[in-house]
Amino acid sequence: MSSPTLPIAPVGHERDGRHDWSGVMEAIRRYALARRKQDDIAEDIAQETVLRCIEYCRSHDVASLYALAYRIAANLIADHHRAARGQTGELEESIECDAPLPDQIVADRLEIERLSGALSGMPALRREVFLRRRLHGESYATITKDLNMSSKAVEKHIGRALETLTKAMKRSSGSKRDGS
Amino acid sequence: MKDRQITEEATYWLEQMNSPVVDVSVARGFDKWMDADARHRDVFSDLQGLWDSPLLTGAARLSNSAPQPEAEEMAGGRKKVMASMAFGLMVAAIALLVLALPGPLFMTDIYRTDRGAGDHITLADGSRATLSGDAELEVRILPWKRTAVLRRGEVFLDIAHERFRGFTVESGSAEIKVLGTAFNVDRQGEQDTVVQVYRGVVGLEGPTGEYMVLRKGQAAKATAHHLVWQSDFMNRSGPDWIAGWFEMSNEPLGLLVEKLDRYSEHQIRIDDETLARRRVSGRFHISRPASVLSALKYAYGVTVVDKGDVITLQ
């Protein structure tokens, strides 16, 4: 393996104290909403994420604030679900990392059905490309080779698939999302 | 169309920023793009949120296993093309599978990092691993089981949960059985292994079959002969070494040198056994070996001999 650069890497101090965090905050709020549609949690996650980012940036130089923020938010969301599960008294061992909360199971099931419906409605090739990348974690390189297409075409299929899926999610969320 | 263009750009960044290796210039480009327009941030956040959502995993699994009816829904000519394409793909997939057995399906991936250079990797099952410098991890993902062997170095693993396919890590005398969870494995020398759990639960089996269950915030050490509890550590989302720090409380200097060696471009050695056993405490910035070495000089009166390729402590 050659010497890779981690996403969080020293890049100098140009960001110190000068970054406007409102963009990051809004991005994380939106991210948390897209993960699970609970407005109150999204707000908390966004605030906590920015606080931790600021704290982290005091002692580290960060190449991408947004990448750091998404990673912190993903961990917080996972922690939140674990904590909520703890209250239900379920055994930790028997649970998936991101298993749904009991009060969300029905809503989640509907969401899964909606998403899988959107996937089924896609052209077969597009679904194939998307499943290979997202479900099986195959690289662009593998997909281009196996399906004999350019990486630009792979990207396009994934982009269109994501577009279809986000639309399906938004249709379902009604007034809970701001819809902008 | 503007919206579609933003989605396309966001898809590009999604791929870039979620790849195991992200270059600094790419990371900066990403922030620049995000800062440029609120719509960029909105669209990217939606896509990243969807991409990370376990609901999407559920939907993808469902869609992957279900027969696909959509060919009939499509219009005439296109339907034929798609159907034959699907058939072609199926034949190709079967051919691949036949050709591949026992090829790639049974292949072992070996990840090695150079001294001074760690790495983030995503395994074939979607699990993530962060390797320290000078580490070697061997991974086999089979249809019925997932195993990894840590030959040297340190690895932080975030394992994708699968109900019917466990994940086992071997390191020295220890065998670690995993459910969906995040934990750190530190191979210390030939035999010893320290395991710290950051999320979920792991089972740790020692050389004599001794078995221990570790929960979040707990740690244990497996030596050549037995398992030992280690005091609970602070619960964070990941270990310190990823950020370049190592905390020691009354532990041998040799261990610190081993850690420094992973971060250093030149080999760092300690030849004197007595010195290696000497107990030290403190929080060390191991990603900066030179400054730690000079601190050791003053704090512990250690002599550091730098011969270019090898740095020796005396």
Automatic annotation (TrEMBL), chain B:
PANTHER family xrefs: PERIPLASMIC SIGNAL SENSOR AND SIGMA FACTOR ACTIVATOR FECR-RELATED (PTHR30273), PROTEIN FECR (PTHR30273:SF2)
Residue intervals of the FecR protein domain: 110-202
Descriptive protein name: FecR domain-containing protein
Pfam families: FecR
Organism: Novosphingobium mangrovi
The keyword Ribonucleoprotein belongs to this UniProt entry's keyword annotation: no
InterPro entries: FecR, Ferrdict_sens_TM
Keywords linked to the UniProt accession: Membrane, Transmembrane, Transmembrane helix
Record-annotated membrane-spanning stretches: 86-107
